[in-house]
Design brief:
Strand content: 15-25%
Number of strands: 11
Shape: elongated
Largest sheet: 7 strands, parallel
Radius of gyration: 20 Å
Helix content: 25-40%
Order of helices and strands: HHEHEHEHEHEHEHEHEEEEH
Structural class: alpha/beta
Strand order of the largest sheet: 7-6-5-10-8-11-9
Distance between the termini: 54 Å
Number of helices: 10
Length: about 260
């Protein structure tokens, strides 16, 4: 119980290389993925339905430590107002850039630079998953992917594509440059219209903090400024919406959709 409560703290999650997820759907996604589930906590109510029983059997088959807890304890451990009665402790995967972003696969990468809103980050990851992106890179200063609010916003997409948190920004950007990835930097105006940019080549979509914009180091590498046309009166788009538009333009071009 102490372990689960401490996993609410970012520093403890990073130290232990673990995270907690809750809810029937999230536990299903976790157990069906390649991620290592270490502990599953459940209440009697959660296992009254067939869906819950199947999850318990699957967890036991995979060698997960399964523990029954009271409704009161589950509520104390839960980050939601109405817990569904299932909570799992997982080990964080150890991805590397070389593992997931390879030059022979014409990478489509999303690079998140300083986005602070958990909901926006979760939506960006969900869109990247839907678009079949190679992976998502989180640069230093971005909200923690394992923040419970971010996890919920991904709707399970975190288990479908690699998400890497990097501390050395230049090392990550140099690796991308070495395999021929062009960085696409969004500009409110003055860039190449996104529908005319070539997104069929290896590209990394820079997703920056809406207020601060991308960090200066990014412009030292091969990049292209792109703009999403906005004939209306809005000054800008939400960062997650803008990312989705660019990703789906990449899909249109790569799959030759007219």
């Amino acid at each position: 119980m102490k372990l689960v409560k401490k996993l609410a703290q970012r520093n403890f999650r990073q130290k232990e290389r673990k995270l907690a997820v809750e809810g029937i759907r999230f536990v299903e996604e976790a157990l069906s993925s390649t991620w290592q589930t270490e502990i599953l906590l459940y209440t009697d109510q959660a296992c009254q339905a067939q869906r819950g029983k199947i999850l318990l059997d699957l967890a036991r088959d995979k060698g997960v430590e399964v523990l029954a807890v009271s409704d009161a304890i589950m509520k104390e451990l839960s980050d939601t107002e109405t817990p569904q009665g299932m909570l799992a402790v997982l080990r964080q995967p150890d991805y590397t850039l070389e593992d997931i972003i390879r030059p022979d696969q014409k990478p489509l990468v999303v690079i998140v630079d300083g986005v602070q809103d958990p909901g926006n980050l979760g939506t960006i990851i969900r869109s990247a998953d839907a678009a079949g992106a190679s992976g998502v890179i989180l640069l230093k200063g971005t909200v923690d992917i394992y923040n419970p609010k971010t996890l919920r916003a991904t709707m399970g997409s975190l288990f479908h594509l690699p998400v890497i948190q990097v501390s050395d920004v230049n090392e990550a950007l140099e690796y991308l440059a070495s395999i021929g990835v062009t960085l696409l930097v969004g500009e409110p105006a003055g860039g190449i219209p996104v529908f005319k940019a070539n997104l069929q080549t290896p590209v990394g979509i820079i997703v920056a903090n809406e207020g601060a914009g991308p960090r200066e180091e990014i412009f030292r590498y091969n990049h292209q400024k792109i703009t999403i046309p906005m004939p209306g009166c809005a000054e800008s788009l939400n960062v997650a919406i803008a990312t989705s538009i660019i990703l789906y333009e990449a899909i249109r071009q790569r799959h030759k959709i007219q």
